[in-house]
Design a protein that fits this description.
Elements: E1 5-11, E2 16-19, E3 25-38, E4 44-56, H1 57-66, E5 72-85, E6 92-105, E7 119-121
Parallel strand pairs: 4-6
Antiparallel strand pairs: 1-3, 1-5, 2-3, 3-4, 5-6, 6-7
């Protein structure tokens, strides 16, 4: 069996950084992918799909430091669906996520929509702990974030101020 995902999209929000109970960093962010086609009537159509992405360890630290809303990235990972009982309503809740094995920033610094760029890969694997979401009794608000705001500008440019020098980038 194979569970492998490759996505190219734009960040819908800045990464949210948390830590597991053992202190391992975890980054969560939404990624928008677009599909374009022409319908039977010759009209161009577009559909945006939102993905919830989770990074662990050093990769989460790099995501928190260098990724920002609007940035185009390539993500490689696997799909996982978590479930838990909502504390307030008692209903069974589900969240499908992309557990990121590695990601690559596309475009040049300050240019979030063109090719090129730098990447970061972390070993990943199947040994990531439950990172303190609602099923593990994590902080309130660590449950489903809705996969991104429908009004988020998936193709927007992020602010290029505060760019790092070449010496500051760890890869």
């Amino acid at each position: 069996m194979l569970n492998k995902v490759f996505l190219i999209g734009n960040l819908g929000r800045d990464p949210e950084i948390r830590s597991t109970q053992s202190g391992q960093p975890v980054a969560n962010f939404s990624l928008a992918t677009n599909r374009r086609w022409t319908d039977r009537n010759g009209q161009r159509q577009e559909q945006t799909e939102w993905h919830n992405v989770v990074c662990f360890g050093r990769q989460a630290e790099v995501a928190g430091q260098y990724l920002q809303k609007g940035r185009q990235i390539f993500v490689e990972g696997r799909i996982q669906t978590r479930s838990w009982d909502d504390r307030q309503t008692g209903e069974k809740r589900y969240r499908t996520e992309i557990l990121c094995d590695n990601f690559q920033m596309l475009g040049q610094r300050g240019d979030h929509d063109s090719g090129g760029g730098a990447g970061y890969s972390a070993g990943g694997g199947d040994d990531e702990p439950d990172y303190g979401g609602p099923a593990a009794g994590g902080p309130a608000g660590s449950g489903p974030a809705g996969g991104g705001d429908a009004d988020a500008d998936a193709g927007g440019e992020a602010d290029a101020g505060g760019e790092a020098d070449d010496d500051d980038i760890p890869f």
